[in-house]
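Please, structure for the following, as tokens.
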Amino acid sequence: PIMAAHATKVTIEELEKNRIHPKFWDNCAHLLIALNKCRYDTFSMPWKCVEERHAYEKCEYEDYVSRLKKPATAHH
């Protein structure tokens, strides 16, 4: 998880301050912070924060696809 922090758009301090679990420290962490803030502000009502949730899920999907396209390194 620490290795992913360099690629994210937020600092480790921001991630910790916003109580983001290290397993979510990735390229989309900044969107997760916004989504969690929206959820907190709207009492987690399911019809709220749709745009924030979509942005986060799209980012996670695109990150996943980009990792699949990277060639695997050979380990002997």
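The CA atoms of residues 28 and 59 lie 6 Å apart. Confidence is low (pLDDT under 50) at residues 1-6.
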